[in-house]
Prior knowledge:
This protein has 421 residues and is an alpha/beta fold.
Amino acid sequence: MSILIKNVFFKEEPVDIYIEGNIIKQMGQGLSAQIRADKVIDGTNKAVIAGLVNCHTHSAMTLFRGWGDDMELEAWLSEKIWPYEARLTDEMVYWGARLACLEMIKTGTTCFNDMYWKMDAISTAVEESGLRAVLSSVTLDSSNTQTVSDIVAPIKESHKKAGKFSDRITFALGPHAIYTVSKDIFKWIDSYSKDNNLLIHTHLSETPTEYDNCVKAHGLSPVRYLNSIGLLSPRLIVAHCLWLDSEEIQMLADNDVKVVHNPNSNLKLASGYKFKYHEMKDKGITVGIGTDGCSSSNNLDMIEATKVASLIGKAWRDDPTATPAKEMFKCATVNGGIILRQNVGKVKEGYLADLALVDLNSTAFTPNFNFISNLIYAAHGDNVDTVICNGKILMENRHVEGEEEIMRMATLSARKLFFNK
């Protein structure tokens, strides 16, 4: 399959983009006069961007959207989240993940990093959606009755099953957090990750309570604790990281740990807001952006998340030049590709053909003095018109095949989950 995108706005000028298979093969002006393609897309009045990369989410939690909002964190978890997660079936998770994939396609995301239950169902949903994803199943060992072998056996089984899916799906390891995973399991996960060259995806230093409890339990802050047990490495992706001092930032940098900022979730759950982006960047840490799950951020719109990341960074520093739109856009594209080890995040020859076309015929882009500023500060996910992932068109003219059925089945699954209907 080959695709030719004609006359699309890129870096202040119109270009043609030729996609062969799943790769951006050629870019330039006048290609449409030289190249024949199976599919031609008219890019007039559209701009092309790399598909956005959501570096931290819990996809099937779309079913929890609006369920238990505006509650204290502990009550929210104990009353509205954990009891109902225990009732999730494979079918529910499948439709929740299909809805997440639909929402991400509709808002320009082509690759995401996920941690949730029933990974096989999520893998199936991602495979059918056409998106690219790094998937990990949640690992917990809070029960005293479980042995190490009880916990690691399902991980190995999931790793084995992951081989039946396409190369758009990458298996990763998902230890939930320092307060739900023991030292022994963390160390086993690190060893298994090293032996199999797998990414590890976890939450870290998200709340003051987590920080204080870690100090009480181990005599060390969360980052220092993981450092003490040898878990910090280039394979580790840590979400949130709101409560860090300069020494902890240096530890993350020294070990090439990747960090994901989740501004909307942090604000809604009042976890904190002083994400130290500039301090991390200055130390060479690769920072990405995530939406977190719809239970805590309510949507998966990466354009919105990137805008909030920029605005909140300016506000708490009292500095309008901080966290500029151009840098935050890089976090949501280029850095995401680096973090997830995917050849995505750039509109460039040789990169995977994961692209989004943005409709410029909108008030958000009128006048269009600065496209990136308009995209981040004025636009939203609904301005995305066309999405291509792995060289396949997933959305054109804002239509995704089967979207009505996905929304219908996800609604039925949510009703079954919460109301037994």
